[in-house]
Write a structure and sequence with these properties.
65 residues, mainly alpha
């Protein structure tokens, strides 16, 4: 593998960085809100599943005792 000198490396990095399409402020805001909403939905779902499993296990253990 050929080695490049530091100047060529910096030039290559700048060239690649210029190809990046950066999100707009609005896109970042919408994505952040969507992540928060999905995290809340999943947290609620797993909380309810946990309650259901706990209720089922307690019922089974109470019946067995």
């Amino acid at each position: 593998m050929a080695r490049t000198n530091p100047l060529q490396f910096i030039q290559q990095v700048r060239a690649e960085t210029s190809k990046v399409v950066w999100p707009t402020r609005r896109e970042v805001g919408l994505t952040t809100v969507m992540v928060m909403i999905m995290a809340t939905v999943f947290a609620t779902f797993f909380f309810l599943v946990d309650l259901l499993i706990r209720f089922g296990l307690e019922t089974i253990l109470r019946a067995a005792a």
